[in-house]
Specification:
It holds the Pfam family Acetyltransf_1. InterPro entries: Acyl_CoA_acyltransferase (IPR016181), GNAT_dom (IPR000182). The protein is α+β, with helices and mostly antiparallel strands. It is built from five helices and seven strands. The protein starts with a strand and ends in a 14-residue tail after the last strand.
Length: 190
């Protein structure tokens, strides 16, 4: 089996004032919270966004696993829509002691390069900072963090840095090289 070196960067914000919001894109772009836990919709977002950048860790999840994950307190999915069509999403997960992780973030390939990503990341990060206002029992946020890797989109790291995230860790590991799965078996990503 062939392996590839994958660099993983961990980034964080430690104050809401660290967030440097992107401009709101022109047109009818909205970001809406998906409030009803829906394994079908979440799996659609995961495969549509991650299919061409090798997101594979959740592909084997059952319906029950998706539902259990989505139904946990402190897990939120925020979806960007361009003229009513899902363009991308950000998944937040509240962790211990006021920490919120941006677990997944990205755009469907057809919507990349249209300034939606900076806006979605800004909006999602702001929602990480104010999560306690929506979630009784969740401690006020003191830190927002995420990780990205060399397999992610070419503009991912730049977007995170421009939104005010600071690098705090870097790791390089060998991983098995896997084919891009596409949004469904047999699909060929754009």
């Amino acid at each position: 089996m062939t392996t590839i070196a994958v660099t993983t960067w961990s980034l964080e914000q430690t104050s809401p004032t660290d967030l440097l919001p992107a401009a709101v894109p022109e047109g009818d772009v909205r970001v809406v919270r998906s409030e009803v836990p829906s394994p079908e919709f979440s799996r659609f977002l995961y495969t549509a966004v991650g299919g061409d950048i090798r997101w594979t860790d959740r592909l084997g999840w059952t319906y029950a696993q998706w539902l259990e994950h989505l139904d946990r307190p402190g897990v939120e999915t925020w979806v960007a829509y361009d003229r009513g069509t899902p363009a991308g999403y950000v998944e937040l997960e509240s962790q211990d002691d006021g920490v919120v992780e941006i677990v997944y973030f990205g755009l469907v390939a057809a919507f990349r390069g249209r300034r939606i990503g900076g806006h979605l990341l800004s909006y999602g990060t702001a929602r990480a900072w104010d999560m306690a206002e929506r979630r009784p029992g969740v401690k006020p946020t003191t830190r927002v963090w995420l990780h990205t890797c060399s397999k992610d989109g070419e503009h991912a790291m730049d977007n995170y840095l421009r939104r005010g995230f600071k690098l705090f860790d870097t790791k390089v590991e060998e991983e098995p090289e896997v084919a891009t799965p596409g949004p469904w078996p047999g699909a060929h990503p754009a």
